[in-house]
Design a protein that fits this description.
Chain A: This is Methionine--tRNA ligase, cytoplasmic. The complex is a heterodimer of chains A (about 900) and B (about 140). Chain A has about 900 residues and is an alpha/beta fold. Chain A is built from 33 helices and 20 strands. In chain B, strands 1-2-3 form a three-stranded antiparallel sheet, with helices on one face. In chain B, helix 1 packs parallel to helix 2 and helix 3 runs parallel beside helix 5. The chains are: A alpha/beta (about 900), B mainly alpha (about 140).
């Protein structure tokens, strides 16, 4: 037989590797032809590589050629391999040819190239990690591995295109790439030129049509059932039979929680919300809620856990707010701290401590770190040109200047950072700066300031990062942000400000200045802990025994991943540094951003007025958690997910399982005689449970929620196939079967209640009360699926868990919160002050117009002072105008005689 | 013809009595077979091959290594080229190629009917109804 290959044809890679299988078994000639040569007489388009068989037949499909070589060497085909090859041909190849075309022919880079492939790569990664095998179709390398490896090699051999977060894909790919036949084929085809070696071939190919892009990233990957081995099934059955006995006793509650030698000590922080803003849903999912899920999970694992947060209270914004409301900054903080605490309490956030940064401990610890940095020579002094608003008579904090971004031209860049391009800005570099308070143009004045000498600390930082980052414990966006900072080179950062409301700077000549949030906000975690226990150093100066997890949105990464570590390393006081840095992307609201000023979006304090329970909010926010990419809150989607996933899937299953026990077995869990099918189900559930654990250990919160829903889907399917409601009316054997199915199902429901606990704590407690789940099983989540409700266990009263969300209810909420409103055209937006008006707002305005109308009439009737009447009339006209705008009507021009 | 309907037809022609249930996945409505005693199978040719084995008619998958590889090649051709054709011109080329290939053959692999013939026939049926008048 004769193999035709051509320069740069990617298909040659797997074919050459597979050809190694027939060495010595058959005679194989290899001919190299031009890429455009039509070797196969009956095909119009050239196809290469091609294998001409001795019979005269041609194999022109790369997979088929590889398959043929494998068949000759005695390999037997199987379903899983066929499935992978079909997937390769129909899904991977179209995406891959687009990616290679972009890269090699169009010279695109990065995400442009990887974009079309994202789903396919994730699919391989998930399949590998789900089935827990090193290779695609089992324990040994086989046909599917060679074909897929060969297809992917030209692109993935460049480490930039092998996503770090896809760990299973990476190790599979690297294992194959280091094997001798693969290395030889790679050298023959790519000739050490990398992907560019494919150019001669790709140039001759028609431009591939781009694969269908998917706009929505909220959809789950399709689930596949893994292949189970006999051992896995046997292990699952053994664990199941052990039941409650193997559960450890619940951890006794400690107060205060302190690290224990020899245990896993987990310290969790979520970014400190700024005190004078009411947090919106994006803030909530970005830090406190994500951290809460992990903290709850950590406690279920019996890890010694401390979860802390608090309000960040110092700074200009507080001063300004205080001015606005006629209060002192301290009073503002006191007021808003309570608002925050209430919101998080409503969302059921399980803080061990929710503190604040305006405490004597904050001053003490911040000043101590500063003194240590100063004596070690890491503090610089310099004169700073700063923007001062003469009208407000003060220096403007970065956040109080807005202007045009000097890098990208974005019009609403803030003084410290541009929201569009994400670059950090020096406020005086802003074009067309404006004081955010009075809108006048600030002037540049100079002032003495202190700087943290980051360049001098860079080496220590890199050394620490070198030890920390390879653990893959930081989310990819965090690693990326820190790397790009280091690549651009660190510069000294100013750590003082001309303000009053802050931690005082303990240095002569700086009495009227305070520390800047860059420096002292992250120290808040330490001082908040110090207010909780005087032994706070056992958490914060104990890197050997404590695992520090920090949750935040990605804009906070530089403070946590770089500035604080630099301060801590420079202070040389053995501080605990972040080991797991978990940063989310942004959550959008419907199609735009949350905006307090425009009244768009749902804010923490409003969520409770919607009548939708906190757990439903938690579920949906976690379901759309911006993990890996931005996502969007959508009312319609929330309705859909509530009604499909919660009501029809999870709620339906748990309720049915419980109802069968109540209705058919008098509330007592029946005897279970497991058939091989049941045993297989136990193993599937165990596998999914272990997958859940793996994901949460990596803090992939959103993916782990999918695992819960998958377990419940297995449960529903199990009930559906076995139909206990029919069998209960049948023969003795049928009734026995109905009992087993009901018993297994109700135990799955019990497992679900525990898996659900980090996500929906109230629903979880409700299920556990309904099932009367024994206490030890409620507070520990083992890695195996145990029978926690043995035969004879009496359950409680079962009732439905979730309510349907109705369309009109959601439409109302959408109206109320400004979602789905027609976008305001720019020309209109200038005139308009009331942009979003729901029916409620219109109602209020109408009432106000009527009220004001009555006041005017009364004054006129009393023949009151002209000026007074005029003022009230003006107010009435203004209200009418607002109402007209809110209703979207044209303004009525005043008719008739002029009003004075 | 939706993939599920096609697989139902195949089941019938293979003499499989107990009907399977199929679901569809994604935009392209790829068929999924949920088996009770194993993992689910995804994809038309994967499921079709599985059904043939279930019916103990392995000869339809080819008897020699060469035939087996040929059958799978034409199955791949069916799902990538026949199902993936984008316009009339492509369709024309495809039919022309097949016509010239089959000139000296009875079936796709030579003298024996295989699964490749069955699925290619199903795939082309719709296609020919749609194009034959303009193509030839």
């Amino acid at each position: 037989m004769r193999l035709f290959v051509s320069e740069g044809a990617p298909g040659s890679l797997p074919v050459l590797v597979a050809a190694g299988r027939v060495e010595g078994r058959a005679e194989l000639l290899i001919s190299t032809v031009a890429p455009e040569e039509c070797v196969v007489p009956f095909l119009t388009q050239p196809r290469l590589p091609v294998l001409q068989l001795d019979s005269g037949n041609y194999l022109f499909s790369t997979s088929a050629i590889c398959r043929y070589f494998f068949l000759l060497s005695g390999w037997e085909p199987d379903d899983l391999t066929n499935q992978w090859l079909e997937w390769e041909a129909t899904e991977l190849q179209p995406a891959l040819s687009a990616a290679l075309h972009y890269l090699v022919i169009q010279g695109k880079k990065g995400e442009d190239v990887l974009g079309p492939l994202g789903r396919a790569l994730t699919h391989i990664d998930h399949s590998l990690s789900r089935q827990n095998c090193p290779f695609l179709a089992g324990e040994t390398e086989s046909l599917a591995d060679i074909v897929l490896w060969g297809a992917l090699y030209p692109l993935l051999q460049d480490p930039a295109y092998l996503p770090e977060e896809l760990g299973a894909l990476r190790s599979w790919f690297q294992t194959l790439s280091t094997q001798e036949p693969c290395q030889r084929a790679a050298e023959t085809v790519l000739k050490k030129q990398g992907v560019l070696a494919l150019r001669p071939y790709l140039q001759k190919q028609p431009q591939p049509s781009p694969p269908e892009g998917r706009a929505v990233s909220n959809e789950p990957e399709e689930e596949e059932l893994a292949v189970l081995s006999e051992e896995e099934i046997a292990a699952a059955v053994t664990a199941w039979e052990k039941g409650l006995e193997i559960l450890p006793p619940p951890r006794p509650q400690q107060n205060p929680v302190l690290p224990v030698a020899g245990e896993r000590n987990v310290l969790i922080t979520s970014a400190l919300p700024y005190v004078n803003n009411v947090p919106h849903l994006g803030n909530i999912i970005g830090c406190v809620l994500s951290a809460d899920v992990f903290a709850r999970y950590s406690r279920l694992r019996q890890w010694n856990t401390l979860y802390l947060c608090g309000t960040d209270e110092y700074g200009t914004a507080t001063e300004t707010k205080a001015m606005e409301e006629g209060l002192t900054p301290q009073e503002i903080c006191d007021k808003y701290h309570v608002i925050h605490a209430d919101i998080y309490h409503w969302f059921n956030i399980s803080f061990d401590i929710f503190g604040r940064t305006t405490t004597p401990q904050q001053t003490k610890i911040t000043q101590d770190i500063f003194q240590r940095l100063l004596t070690r020579g890491f503090i610089l002094q310099d004169t700073v040109e700063q923007l001062r608003c003469e009208r407000c008579a003060r220096f403007l904090a970065d956040r109080f200047v807005e202007g045009v971004c000097p890098f990208c031209g974005y019009e609403e860049a803030r003084g410290d950072q541009c929201d569009k391009c994400g670059k950090l800005i020096n406020a005086i570099e802003l074009k067309k700066p404006q004081c955010k308070v009075c809108r006048s143009c600030p002037v540049v004045k100079s002032s003495q300031h202190l700087f943290l000498d980051l360049p001098k600390l860079e080496k220590r930082l890199e050394e620490w990062l070198g030890k920390t980052l390879p653990g893959n414990n930081w989310t990819p966006n965090a690693r990326f942000i820190i790397r790009s900072w280091l690549r651009d080179g660190l510069k000294p950062r100013c750590i003082t400000r001309d303000l009053k409301w802050g931690t005082p700077v303990p240095l002569e000549g700086f009495e009227d200045k305070v520390f800047y949030v860059w420096f002292d906000a992250t120290i808040g975690y330490l001082s908040i802990t110090a207010n909780y226990t005087d032994q706070w150093e056992r958490w914060w100066k104990n890197p050997e025994q404590v695992d520090l997890y920090q949750f935040m949105a990605k804009d906070n990464v530089p403070f946590h991943g770089l500035v604080f570590p630099c301060s801590a390393l420079g202070a040389e006081d053995n501080y605990t540094l972040v080991k797991y840095l978990i940063a989310t992307e942004y959550l959008n609201y419907e199609d735009g951003k949350f905006s307090k000023s425009r009244g768009v979006g749902v804010f923490g304090d409003m969520a409770q007025d919607t009548g939708i329970p906190a757990d439903i909010w938690r579920f949906y926010l976690l379901y759309i958690r911006p993990e890996g990419q931005d996502s969007a809150f959508s009312w319609t989607d929330m309705l859909l997910k509530n009604n499909s996933e919660l009501l029809n899937n999870l709620g339906n299953f748990i309720n049915r399982a419980g109802m069968f026990v109540s209705k058919f077995f008098g509330g007592s869990v029946p005897e279970m005689l497991l058939t091989p099918d049941d045993q297989r189900l136990l193993a599937h559930i165990t596998l999914e449970l272990q997958h859940y654990h793996q994901l949460l250990e990596k803090v992939r919160i959103r993916d782990a929620l999918r695992a819960i829903l998958t377990v419940s889907r297995h449960g529903n399917q199990y009930i559906q196939v076995n139909e206990p409601w029919k069998r209960i009316k049948g023969s003795e054997a049928d009734r026995q079967r109905a009992g087993t199915v009901t018993g297994v199902a109700v135990n799955i429901a019990a497992l679900l209640s525990v898996m659900l606990q980090p996500y929906m704590p109230t629903v979880s407690a409700t299920i556990q009360a309904q099932l009367q789940l024994p206490l030890p099983a409620c507070s520990v989540l083992p890695t195996d699926f145990l029978c926690t409700l043995p035969a004879g266990h009496q359950i409680g009263t079962v009732s439905p868990l979730f309510q349907k969300l109705e369309n009109d209810q959601i439409e109302n909420l959408k109206q109320r919160f400004g979602g789905g409103q027609a976008k305001i055209s720019p020309s209109l937006a200038v005139v308009e002050t009331v942009t979003t008006a729901g029916p409620q707002q219109i109602q209020t305005l109408m009432e106000e117009v009527t009220k004001q109308g009555n006041i005017v009439r009364e004054l006129k009737a009393q023949k009151a002072d002209k000026n007074q009447v005029a003022a009230e009339v003006a107010q009435l006209l203004d209200l009418k105008k607002q109402l007209a705008l809110a209703e979207g009507k044209p303004l009525e021009t005043p008719k008739g005689k002029k009003k004075k | 013809m939706a993939a599920a309907a096609e697989l139902k037809l195949l089941e019938k022609s293979l003499g499989l009595s107990k009907g399977n249930k199929y679901s569809a996945q994604g935009e392209r409505q790829i068929p999924v077979l949920q088996t009770n005693n194993g993992p689910s199978l995804t994809g038309l040719t994967t499921i079709a091959t599985h059904l043939v084995k279930q019916a103990n008619k392995e000869h339809l998958l080819g008897s020699t290594a060469e035939e087996k590889a040929m059958v799978q090649q034409w199955l791949e051709y069916r799902v990538t080229r026949v199902d993936g054709h984008s316009n009339k011109e492509n369709a024309h080329t495809l039919l022309k190629d097949l016509n010239s290939y089959l000139e000296d053959k009875v079936y796709l692999t030579g003298y024996n009917l295989t699964l490749a013939d069955i699925l290619l026939y199903y795939g082309l049926h719709r296609f020919i109804v749609q194009y034959i008048l303009v193509a030839f």
